[in-house]
Here is the input.
Amino acid sequence: MNIDFSTANRIIFGAGRLSYLREIIGHYGKKVLIIKGKEFPDPGTLFTICEDANVVWNYFNVENEPNVKTVNRAVELGREKECDFVIGFGGGSVIDTGKAVAALLNNQGSLLYYLEVIGKGKPLRNPSKPYIAIPTTAGTGSEVTRNAVISVPDKKVKVSMRNAYLLPEVAIVDPELTYGVPKTITAMTGMDAFTQVIEPYVSRYSNPMVDLFCKDAIPKGASYLLRAWEDGNDHEARENISWVSLMGGLALANAKLGAVHGFAGPIGGMFHVPHGAICAALLPSVMLINMKALSHRGKNFNKLTRFEDIARWVTGVENATIEEGVEWIASLCKNLEIPRLSELGIKKAHFPIIIDKSKKSSSMKGNPIQLTEREMEKILELSY
Ligand SMILES: [Zn+2]
Here is the structure.
């Protein structure tokens, strides 16, 4: 058994735990750069905590997904204000921006020098400035992963900055911050979190440590996602979905993902569509086609057993078949009013290019079996 596990230096989880920041914020310096979303949620408490601790704060708003320009502008502000550390307070895009900014504040040069694929992909020389990641949605688990996804609009791609130095110093996951997140965002981010505990469990790189997170989180995602969507103030449901999101981050960072994310990366670069919506639209058909591919030509039957586990956990039925599990997830997507690929502006004419790009994406390598082009096309057709 070979395991190489890494995560944030410290994880603080629980409703109301944002207040714990008071106890530790002074350890990281006197000046902080706060990276946050533009409108939601209200950063008032965060500002008060800084003031009480005599920490001078400056903030930078992230309006959409982070792109090269946004990150470079935030870094300029951090350098100009001589910030000692960085706090990210927002959804996955904000958390990712914060990672890249904290890294660049302690390393020379601009973002392009370090980006994969379109940049030079150089490794970071120095550790990042201390970074405290505080997610305010339950979805990406980015507070415990070592990459930041950056979009490059003129090239229509999303690429990663990837380095162990990007792991935050502290991750504060406070489910209270997700109370009242609007329904559509709850559905999409929640389905991303759910996918991120399913894919690592069947991944080619699954390992016994990550299995523990997935085994705990898959049944919880199934039990609580609809409840969190129906009532944004259902505290028990919100807490559980925040937990699933955190488990997803731990799992994907240490066992990779699969075809859902293999497709979602390139589609997200080509179309302006929320990541979670793409994942949700694809998840049932990816599971179905993977199951068929594994039954017809797979050598690794242990992976099929894992799909059976998932079917049992989501349906709550002891002898549920994989098809029944897939149907259960498809009906969850319907209940959450998740759009189909055709409703996300994707045309069938785009399929060949999507398939071509997805074959090369890094998440596709985690898929339990290498899919043929025909199988990939079938997944897109079934999700259309
Ligand atoms: Zn995802």
Notes: The first strand starts at residue 10 and ends at 13.
